[in-house]
Structure formats: C-alpha cells, structure tokens
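4.2 Preliminary Data

To establish feasibility before requesting continued support, the project team ran the inverse folding procedure on a target of 153 residues. The structure was first converted into the token representation described in Section 3, and no sequence information of any kind was made available to the design step. The complete token record follows.
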C-alpha cells in the first residue's frame, strides 16, 4: 500500500509540472504576439500611404486628361493661349470650368514650337509642330507630367 501512495503522489506531481506554462514561455509568447501586432500596424500604415499616393496619381492623370481634351478642342494657333493662362489653380476642366473640388492641385501647361525632324529640338521661328507639356502639382509637389506633340493640320 505504501508503494501505491508514493506512486499516486508521483503521478499528481508529474501532472502538475507538465500541465502549465513557465514564466519564460509566457514571456516569449507575449513578445511574439507583440511583434505580430507591430508588423500588422506597420503594414496597415504602408497600405494607407500607398492608397493615398494612388489616389493622388489618379487625380493628377484625370487633370492632365482635362487639359489634353481642352487642347484638342482648340485650333493649332490657339494653343499658345492655353499656355498663357497657366498655371491653373484651382485646375480647369476640358470646357474651361474651374474645378474647385481639386483646389490643392495645380495644372501647369507649356507649349513649345519644335523642329519637324526632331521633336526634342525647340525652335524660335514658325513650325507646324508644337510640344504640349502638362505638369500637375499637389501643394507645389509634382505628381505627374505628360507631354505630347500636336501638328497643324
């Protein structure tokens, strides 16, 4: 009988030791959970910044397209008038209306006469080709720019 009691005490003692976590194990688990939460917060912040940058770029491309459409409505000789009104802040739409919802954005338009053989070469005299450059800025920081060639036809 003495043997059984000792055996029972041994089993109870053994179950007690194996049934819980040590302080070190709990601390390691807390550190791992903390690192996981910190990583998720960092990723969330990065996604938010990327989303905002994407929205700004999308808006800039929309505003560039408005100038492109406006330039298509103008005759070749009237393109310089488009550039002389630049910068547009707040921006304008294709029909010339002010877009007050985008007041933080600015459209800068440049029209340059270019050589018929080399569109990179700006010329001072008459030319049948112009290069239209549109830059869109958000609070004085360039978001996007596009340029295209327009020919007299």
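Position-by-position output of the design step:
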């Amino acid at each position: 009988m003495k043997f059984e009691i000792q055996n029972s005490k041994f089993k109870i003692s053994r179950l007690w030791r194996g049934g819980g976590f040590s302080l070190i194990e709990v601390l390691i688990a807390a550190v791992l959970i903390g690192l996981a939460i910190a990583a998720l917060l960092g990723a969330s912040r990065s996604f938010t910044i990327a989303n905002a940058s994407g929205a700004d770029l999308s808006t800039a491309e929309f505003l560039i397209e408005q100038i492109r459409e406006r330039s298509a409505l103008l005759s070749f000789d009237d393109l310089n008038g488009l550039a002389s009104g630049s910068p547009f802040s707040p921006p304008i739409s294709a029909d010339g209306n002010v877009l007050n919802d985008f007041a933080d954005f600015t459209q800068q338009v440049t029209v340059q006469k270019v050589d018929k053989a080399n569109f990179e070469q700006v010329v001072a005299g008459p030319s049948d080709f112009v290069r239209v450059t549109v830059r869109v800025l958000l609070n004085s920081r360039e978001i996007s720019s596009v340029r295209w060639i327009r020919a007299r036809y």
